[in-house]
Amino acid sequence: MYCVCKEHIELALDKFVDEYEDAPDMVNLNETHFANWDPPVKCDLCEDKAEFLIV
Description:
The protein contains one helix and three strands. It is an alpha+beta fold.
């Protein structure tokens, strides 16, 4: 699972496929809210705002 900014979507997708050998789902964190989980504020790969969840 990766929480990333727009700039790092492609890299996160590549990492996910390499690790799990399956296509991930991509969730826009600006449009989705979770009842029991707060996504990280920052991108996993830089200091920008996390906007997408790759899972």
